């Protein structure tokens, strides 16, 4: 084994918290569960909550905004896939930046950004869930939001296998519902298939692409999720092999579902209605069939709850990882011997999400999440560039990409971050 290889395998410093008798995280997660986990955090937020906000900016071209966001994600996904094979640890992004920049301060900063992005994202999903829940229960938004946060916090504290299994079940339900909605829309209005060209700009005019890029910043929020997979690395079986596969499958499946559902939505529902809707998929069903969207609201509630719980799980693991690496108070690395979860870290995540969800609106939270996440991705891509320039080799079993991949990933993140200024 070369020195460079050894360096990449042991990049995270040993923690003084760990000894032979310490309670550690349990490796129980397999590839199917990880893909469902990734799809749960990704799809629940993007489709059920964010269609209207994206259509408000891009109109009929909203599906193209999702494709732009997916393209930006692809290069960064490749970088994450390689780095998670190099360093399969909790608080992965922080570890990657520490390895690339040799900076403890920058590493902690990135770790806190990851927690911030997850917290803001979960808050956005909680706010979005209220629109669907109010279809059944006419309570104040704040009371619905608070109830959702505490309920999901309890499940997240219960156990990783229980949390991810719960999320996986909800994911299967919500993806099935999205496919059914798309089929129903096409079945009741088959003429939309002849109008599919309407979602593609007729030219490369900057008037068209500037709004697509601007909406792409919001659409990017819909893809936030695959990077959360790396933060449960210490609970995954064979993470060097499992996590890269889970990352790519999550991104591919999410993109296909998004493009189909958003295309059907804008071709069936007038964009001015969709743009101002608090429950956009309800409107798709109503316009397609004229029937009651009750079952859609039920599924949407499941989807949004799913998005909240997986972000709670992720954020708590990043708190744990940073504390485990001696960068945050050690109490955040405490693993409960009964639940085998970081209870203090989970409670802190619940509190942060509660504050954000009760103070900020949905579109502001979504755009804030996108900007924070793009900043993290830019730094992670740059960290991989620096590791490659320094000749730090990846383990043989790890997925690996050429230098040009993280370079394009870095530039594409900057491009989307500045899209509002075009």
Structure in words:
This protein has 422 residues and is mainly alpha-helical. The chain has one domain (28-421): Amino acid/polyamine transporter I. It has helices at 3-9, 31-58, 62-86, 92-101, 104-133, 141-158, 160-188, 206-223, 239-268, 271-275, 280-289, 294-324, 343-359, 362-389, 404-417. The radius of gyration is 21 Å and the shape is globular.
Query: What best-fitting shape do the alpha-carbon axes yield?
Result: globular
Overall mean confidence score, pLDDT: 82
Major sheet summary line: none
- Percent of residues in beta strands? under 5%
The CATH architecture category equals Up-down Bundle
Could you please say which CATH topology applies here? Amino acid/polyamine transporter I
**Separation of the first and last Cα atoms:** 49 Å
Q: What is the H level of CATH, i.e. the homologous superfamily? A: Amino acid/polyamine transporter I
- Provide the structure class: mainly alpha
- Total beta strand runs: 0
Order of helix and strand elements from N to C terminus: HHHHHHHHHHHHHHH
Low-confidence stretches: 1-21
Estimated helix fraction: over 70%
Broad CATH class: Mainly Alpha
Task: Compute the CA-based radius of gyration.
Answer: 21 Å
Tally of discrete structural domains: 1
Structure annotation, total helices: 15
Describe how the helices and strands are arranged.
Blueprint: H1 3-9, H2 31-58, H3 62-86, H4 92-101, H5 104-133, H6 141-158, H7 160-188, H8 206-223, H9 239-268, H10 271-275, H11 280-289, H12 294-324, H13 343-359, H14 362-389, H15 404-417
Helix pairs in contact: 2-5, 2-7, 2-8, 2-9, 2-12, 3-8, 3-9, 3-14, 3-15, 4-5, 4-14, 5-6, 5-12, 5-13, 5-14, 6-12, 6-13, 7-9, 7-11, 7-12, 8-14, 12-13, 14-15
């Amino acid at each position: 084994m070369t020195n460079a290889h050894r360096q990449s395998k042991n990049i995270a410093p040993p923690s003084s918290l760990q000894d032979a008798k310490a309670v550690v995280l349990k490796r129980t997660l397999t590839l199917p569960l990880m893909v469902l986990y990734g799809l749960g955090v990704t799809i629940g937020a993007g489709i059920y909550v964010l269609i209207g906000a994206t259509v408000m900016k891009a109109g009929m071209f909203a599906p193209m905004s999702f494709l732009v966001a997916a393209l930006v994600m692809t290069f960064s996904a490749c970088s994450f896939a390689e780095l998670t094979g190099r360093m399969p640890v909790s608080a992965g992004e922080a570890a990657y930046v520490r390895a690339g920049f040799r900076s403890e301060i920058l590493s902690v900063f990135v770790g806190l950004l990851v927690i911030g992005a997850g917290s803001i994202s979960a808050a956005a999903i909680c706010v979005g869930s209220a629109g669907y829940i109010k279809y059944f229960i006419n309570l104040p938004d704040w009371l619905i939001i608070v109830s959702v946060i505490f309920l999901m916090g309890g499940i997240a504290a219960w156990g990783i296998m229980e949390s991810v299994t719960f999320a996986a079940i909800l994911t299967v339900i919500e993806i099935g519902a999205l496919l059914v909605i798309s089929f129903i829309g096409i079945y009741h209005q088959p003429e939309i298939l002849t109008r599919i060209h309407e979602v593609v700009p007729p030219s490369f005019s900057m008037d068209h692409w500037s709004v697509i890029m601007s909406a792409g910043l919001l659409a990017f929020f819909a893809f936030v999720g695959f990077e959360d997979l790396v933060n449960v690395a210490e609970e995954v079986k064979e993470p060097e092999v499992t996590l890269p596969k889970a990352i790519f499958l999550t991104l591919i499946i999410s993109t296909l579902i998004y493009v189909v559902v958003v295309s059907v939505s804008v071709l069936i529902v007038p964009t001015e209605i969709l743009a101002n809707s608090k429950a956009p998929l309800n409107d798709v069903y109503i316009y397609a069939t004229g029937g009651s969207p009750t079952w859609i609201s039920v599924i949407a509630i499941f989807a949004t709850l799913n998005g909240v719980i997986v972000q709670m799980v992720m954020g708590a693991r990043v708190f744990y990882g940073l504390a485990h690496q001696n960068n945050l108070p050690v109490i955040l690395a405490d693993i409960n011997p009964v639940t085998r979860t970081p209870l203090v870290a989970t409670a802190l995540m619940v509190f942060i999400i509660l504050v954000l969800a009760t103070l900020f609106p949905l579109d502001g939270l979504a755009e804030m999440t996108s900007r924070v996440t793009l900043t993290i991705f830019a730094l992670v891509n740059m960290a991989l560039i620096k590791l490659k320039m320094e000749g730090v080799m990846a383990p043989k079993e790890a997925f690996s990409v050429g230098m040009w991949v993280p370079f394009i990933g870095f530039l594409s993140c900057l491009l989307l971050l500045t899209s509002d200024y075009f």
